[in-house]
Amino acid sequence: MPRPSVEAERKAQILASTCKVIAAEGFRHLRVSDVAKDAGVSGGTVHYYFETKRELTDAAFEHCFELSVRRRRWILESDEPPLSRLRMVVESYLPEGAETVEAWKVWAELWVEAIRSPELQELNERFYGEWRDIVASIFRDGQASGDIHSSGDPLELANMMVSMLDGLALQVLAGSRAMTVDAMRTTCLRFVDQLSTASVG
């Protein structure tokens, strides 16, 4: 298998550092010089790949999304029953572990800034549309196999689950004493369990 080009590796390195800085300092406090320092390159190198700060941050949000889906590809391709896959989605999105917590912080920054930025609203719309479609496909499989008793629109069910994960994760990140990671896990898994045909048998 051919080795990725140095340019591709350098670009990915810069985007990873951008996500790290956004998570640590916030979108509004991000400076190209901080990204360059974390990546171990010059500011000029960052600008070689990304002419503007907006171009850099947009690419970083996309990079974060792609990595998020890639880390969970095994769930989507699993032969496990749909309800088991939904439980795995819950477990994989709990805000614990440095990589997942960083990704959640990056998303939180995107949401806040998207309130004021039409450009970021479009990015959020695209990413979230793709993510909802992925989750909806699991619900659709569960309805087809008879594992999920709900006859509701798979996309609406996906919206329920995604919004639950998002809302509770933000509470965890905000340090809520009432909404810990364990409490989030219990709440989300209870929602999944209630979808089972076995629970209404």
UniProtKB/TrEMBL annotation:
Residues 8-68 form the HTH tetR-type domain. Pfam families: TetR_C_6 (PF13977), TetR_N (PF00440). Keywords: DNA-binding, Repressor, Transcription, Transcription regulation. InterPro entries: BetI_C, Homeodomain-like_sf, HTH-type_TetR-like_transc_reg, HTH_TetR, Tet_transcr_reg_TetR-rel_C_sf. It comes from the Bacteria. PROSITE patterns: HTH_TETR_2. Residues 31-50 bind DNA. This is TetR/AcrR family transcriptional regulator.
